[in-house]
Amino acid sequence: MISISQVSKSYGTFQVLKNCNAEVARGEVVVICGPSGSGKSTLIKTVNGLETIDAGEIKVGDFRLAPGVTHMAALRRSVGMVFQSFELFPHLSVLSNVTIAQTKVLRRPKAVAEEKARALLARVGLSAHITKYPAQLSGGQQQRVAIARALALDPEVMLFDEPTSALDPEMVNEVLDVMTSLAKQGMTMICVTHEMGFARNVANRVLFMDGGEIVETAEAAQFFNAPESERAKAFLARILKH
Amino acid sequence: MKVDLSAITSVAPFLLSGLLFTVQITVVGVAGGIVFGSLLAVARLSNNRLLSTFATTYINLMRSIPLIMVIFWVFFLVPWAIGWLTNGGRPVAVGASLTIYVTFVLFEAAYYAEIVRAGFRSISAGQYSACEALGLSKFHAYVYILFPQAIRNVLPILLTQTIILFQDTSLVYVISATDLLGAATKIAQRDGSLVEMYLTVGVIYFLFCYTASQLVKRLQGRLAYGAR
Amino acid sequence: MSLLFETTPDGVSRYIDWIWSGLAWTLSLAFGAWTIALVVGTLVGVARTLPGGIWPRLGRIYVETFRNIPLLVQMFFWYFVLPEILPQRIGLAIKQMDPPWGSFVPALVCLGLFTAARIAEQVRAGVQALPRGQTAAASALGFSRGGMYRLILLPQAFRIILPTLTNEFMTIFKNTSVALTIGLVELTATAREINENTFRTFEAYGVVTLVYLVIAMLAWSLMYWIERSVQLPSLVSGSARK
User: Fold this and answer.
1) Nearest CA in chain B to C173
2) How many whole angstroms separate alpha carbon A110 and alpha carbon A119?
3) Are B205 and C80 inside 8 Å of each other by CB?
4) For the CA atoms of chain B, what is the radius of gyration?
5) CB contact under 8 A, A105 and B133
6) 3-class DSSP state for residue A5?
7) CA-wise closest residue to C122 among C33, C41, C227, C68
8) CA A148, A152, A158 angle in degrees (round to 5)?
9) CA neighbours within 13 Å on the CB side: how many for A173?
10) Alpha-carbon span A94 to A76, nearest angstrom
11) For chain C, is the Cβ count within 10 Å smaller at the N or the C terminus?
């Protein structure tokens, strides 16, 4: 469904992605982990074109991304993204946040958009907060709205860029629960995350990145029990100490 | 100090008509200034080199020269401009009001543009990313998401600039227009009631501007996004 | 541009001399008023930050009075109204001041006090932006109120407000033009006079506009240089660093 081939990207003289290769099958859940500055966020942002690539090619379904491709509108309709800082639109109500892209991008009639929004917000457990504004919600609630907002466009792929890193610990689980149920329903997902519990239990495969390269790819269970590369072993040792 | 109150009350209607003109200039200046200023701000951020250079140059130029100088310029140029558009080149006599409106829209737009630009910069970068990720077109993103937030973030400053505009209108004195100050001056010269007229005008301006600035302060408190 | 070197109606000077004269008045008024504004503005601004008593209130009255009346109206007050309401003898003395000074002095006082109100607000904002701990630390070290402001608070506050002061400095040059209404033949008045004498409006206005632009650039460069040389890394708001 998604294939990343020989993707490289540099900022000036600093090479942030070095010849990355990966495949994600339909319905797979892939977790990208690694130390800070390894390029995980940049890599995931290339999949929906938020970051351009200097070399290589990315295929998402029938859509082809290469250096110089600029028309991303079609791609973004089928790829949804959830950000670390939620990025809800503060001047719109929760309901409007979830309907606005439906009405403006997909040109759905308002009634249809609202119905879908209500259904999604119910699915993430936020029916009671439909008329509230983002500032009135907790971080965990805001992130769940953000997930509903992305799902409203019926994407085929969902990208999560450190979705729980900005949350207080007690709210992390409510978001992970939503992501887990999404995975169980068969959504194709790529998640950049530090939540190893989620990775272990929900992910099919793990991509370990360090210094801009995809150092190791393995089935989740295998990665956590018997990592092959030295760098992965060191990383896991540091992370799993607590 | 002798202040003759009847000198003021007898000319109140004329003063009021001057005040009306002041308010008219302010309203036109604000509306036109914000619209043109917002366009300038967006132009300045655009990827089109020509557009952004034009906008930046215009803004910096207008902000570097005195308003009185701009008034003189516009008064000189507008008859020629209209003539060029309609009459085949020769200057056309144009009413003072229209020229004044044009002056204030052109001048204040440069100031509003900078305020709107600050508004855009106050929006977190993630908002732009979120708009992109959702596939919103640039136009939709600006109109529905970015511009409303930008304006809301700088509303107090926009309103303060409007109060400044209200005060700036007094400079139409230099072309003998009959705004509030102009009306007061004409009466003062006719009746010899300088002290009364200028004090009155000072008080009127003070009341308007002080009240307005207090309201803006009140608004500033209410504008926070209502965080828990 | 040849206009500049033509002879004026009085047969003695050239138009460029008129421009020099206008420029001289503009600069004198601007720098003179700026000096008054800095001194008075700092005092009023500091007064507004004092803990209690009558000073903050007096400061507020000053600021509100001078900020809510247009500069032109204030100019008329100093020039026309003040001599009338002062005791006869003083009023007469003022009115008998020789022409350039009769206009210059009221303009100087007016513009200085007007700008002082704006500077007062900026000084107040700068001092109030400092961490509370600064005042506490200074007190604990035994500083008197005066010493605390002079040696600890104001040096920091001024660095914070340098960008807004720069703006004010450039504004004062523009505001000098208002003095033409009370007879001071500064730059803008010179433009009008040259125009009335030669009817070569474009050249007359054009040259003066260019002079204003040059002044603006020089003023901006001067303040930029000052900003850079007194910068403290911790207080940079991001403006002069680039």
Assistant:
1) B66
2) 14
3) no
4) 21
5) no
6) strand
7) C41
8) 70
9) 2
10) 21
11) C
- Measured distance between the N- and C-terminal CA atoms of chain A, rounded to whole angstroms: 36
- The CA R_g of chain A, rounded to the nearest whole Å, is 18
Average pLDDT along chain B: 88
Cβ atoms of residues C235 and C159 within 8 Å: yes
Facing B135 at nearest CB: one of A85, A105, A136: A105
Six token digits for residue B128: 């732009």
Q: For residue range B89-134, list pLDDT tens digits in order.
A: 666 667 788 889 999 999 999 999 999 999 998 898 899 999 999 9
Angle at A186 (CA atoms; ends A184, A187), nearest 5 degrees: 110
Bridge partners, A7 (sequence order): A20
A225 CA: distance to closest CA in chain B (Å): 35
CA A241 to chain centre: 26
CB of B37 closer than 8 Å to CB of B109: yes
User: What's the CA gap between A40 and A210, in Å, rounded?
Assistant: 8
Residue A35: which residues within 8 A CB-CB, separation 6 or more? A210, A235
Q: What is the ipTM of this complex?
A: 0.88
Phi, psi for A29 (deg, rounded to 5):
-115, 115
Spatial distance between the Cα atoms of B155 and B133, rounded to a whole number of angstroms: 28
| CB nearest C80 (choices: B170, B194, B209) | B194
Q: Using the beta-carbon criterion (under 8 Å), do B72 and C205 form an inter-chain contact?
A: yes
pLDDT for the residue numbered C1: 60
Interchain pair B198, C77: CB under 8 A:
yes
Q: For residue A218, report the phi and psi dihedrals to the nearest 5 degrees.
A: -155, 165
Mode of pairing for the β-strands spanning A205-210 and A29-33: parallel
Contact A88, A98 (CB under 8 A): no
Q: From the candidates B65, B161, B180, B210, which should be mutated to test the interface with C, based on the most C CB atoms within 10 A?
A: B65
Structure-token pair, residue B131: 């708009």
C123: closest CA among C71, C58, C168, C170? C168
In angstroms, the separation between the Cα of residue C174 and the nearest Cα of chain B is: 4
Residues A14-46 have pLDDT tens digits of: 899 999 999 999 999 999 998 888 889 999 999
- Mean pLDDT over B10-30 rounds to 92
Radius of gyration of chain C (CA): 21
Evaluate whether C188 touches B66 at the Cβ level (below 8 Å): yes
Distance from CA of C146 to the nearest CA of B (A): 31
Q: Compute the 3-state secondary structure of chain B and give helix, strand, coil in percent, each to the nearest 5.
A: 85, 0, 15
Cβ contacts of A81 on chain B, cutoff 8 Å: 133
